UniProtKB/TrEMBL annotation:
Coiled-coil spans in chain: none
Record bears the keyword Iron: no
Species per Swiss-Prot/TrEMBL record: Micromonospora inositola
Protein name as it appears in the record: Uncharacterized conserved protein, contains Zn finger domain
Skewed-composition ranges (Polar residues): 329-362
Length: 383
């Protein structure tokens, strides 16, 4: 049982094993740590930093056995029903103060002012930098002290958290894994409300031409809606100018406003510039060098019917020869590339323009010259 001030007093209540539950909420993690995303792991790390680690582990078995019957998340409040050893489940309440409306308005302006956060949130993701942004706005995303959490359970155990509260914390972390916006909903903004506010702020900033905060803190000026007093478009600077964002105004403008600040293309520009990349194209990334016989290393040894281990060695030599660069291969016309006969002397190669008959006649003359006889004498001797 939890005391009204949230402190633990007394000793652990002694009960038998919990009643078996059918259809309860079971933790997806069956062993090891619970929590896959950075925000769920961070949530459990914060709880363990409050010296609750040993108490939390007592509820891990409850979470994995499916003893939690119900889990609901509302602004500032998490409620659950956990089945223990008694017939009726114990009601569980975990309270965390939701942010006031004024604080959420400041947070939403910060999020809408940076395209990085807006894009990630609209994609259903919470970037790790979000915790720093919330802290900078004076709204820590996670509780900073255990006193910020009001934990209540209907069990007779005086420990805080009891195993029923601990099981609720673990399933709450997995609920954050499944839907990260549940963490923000606990702080006072549902997913639909937050995304609608971000879209509205960015759309309003695009209409008014408010500068947009780019990642890194730089502010890009937007295009002027009226005529340019400095002259035609060709006299404007080729790149947007940087400057500080106006105080008290949203800094979201969107990519359309940034592109609108660029000068329009002049009709006098040559047509061939259409194919020129506006920014330098990065070099092709280098490829990793792989051994020619890498495939043979991945395959198992062949059976005796197709050659056994000897086949692998022969294929390895062939793969290495085929994988050699052209510069390492023998060049045409070199001594290594000249065919030889059995006596070791080089054989003559037929000229490309010779016919088979001409080749035979030339070889016959060559053989007669080697014997020191003329073709006619050689033929008369054979007769």
């Amino acid at each position: 049982m939890t005391t009204p001030d949230g402190n633990a007093s007394g000793r652990f209540a002694e009960f038998g094993p919990p009643r078996r539950v059918e259809g309860g909420l079971r933790a997806r993690s069956t062993r090891g740590a619970i929590g896959q995303s950075w925000w769920s792991r961070r949530f459990l790390e914060v709880l363990e930093s409050f010296a609750l680690g040993t108490r939390l582990t007592r509820g891990r078995a409850y979470a994995r056995r499916g003893q939690v019957l119900r889990l609901d998340i509302a602004p500032g409040l998490v409620t659950a029903a956990v089945q223990g050893s008694r017939p009726d489940p114990y009601p569980v309440r975990i309270e965390l103060a939701a942010y006031p409306v004024e604080l959420w308005a400041r947070i939403e302006a910060e999020l809408a002012g940076q395209a990085f956060f807006s894009a990630r949130l609209l994609a259903g993701d919470l970037p790790t930098e979000l915790e720093e942004l919330f802290a900078g706005a004076g709204a820590p995303l996670f509780p900073s002290t255990v006193d910020e959490l009001t934990q209540r359970c209907g069990c007779p155990d005086f420990a805080v958290p009891c195993k029923h509260l601990a099981a609720t914390f673990y399933l709450l972390a997995e609920a954050f894994d499944a839907d990260p916006f549940q963490l923000l909903h606990w702080r006072g903004r549902s997913r639909a409300e937050l995304l609608d506010r971000l879209r509205m702020l960015r759309a309003a900033a695009g209409e008014t031409g408010t500068p947009e905060t780019v990642t890194g803190g730089a502010h890009v000026a937007t295009a002027r809606s009226g005529p340019d007093p400095a002259g035609p478009a060709t006299s404007r600077p080729s790149t947007p100018t940087a400057g500080p964002a106006p105080t008290g105004r949203s800094t979201a403008a969107g990519a359309a406003r940034v592109l609108g600040a660029l000068p329009a293309a002049s009709p006098a520009d040559p047509v061939d510039r259409f194919w020129v990349a506006p920014v330098p194209v990065p070099d092709r990334p280098p490829t990793l060098a792989t051994a020619p016989d890498l495939l043979l290393r991945q395959l198992g040894p062949p059976g005796p019917a197709i050659g056994g281990p000897g086949l692998v060695e022969r294929l390895r030599r062939a793969y290495r020869d085929l994988g050699r660069p052209r510069s390492d291969l023998p060049t045409t016309g070199s001594a290594e590339a000249t065919p030889t006969d059995r006596s070791g002397s080089a054989r003559s190669q037929p000229a490309p323009s010779e016919s088979p008959h001409q080749t035979g006649v030339r070889q016959q003359h060559h053989g007669a010259d080697r014997a020191g006889q003329s073709p006619g004498q050689h033929g008369h001797r054979r007769q």
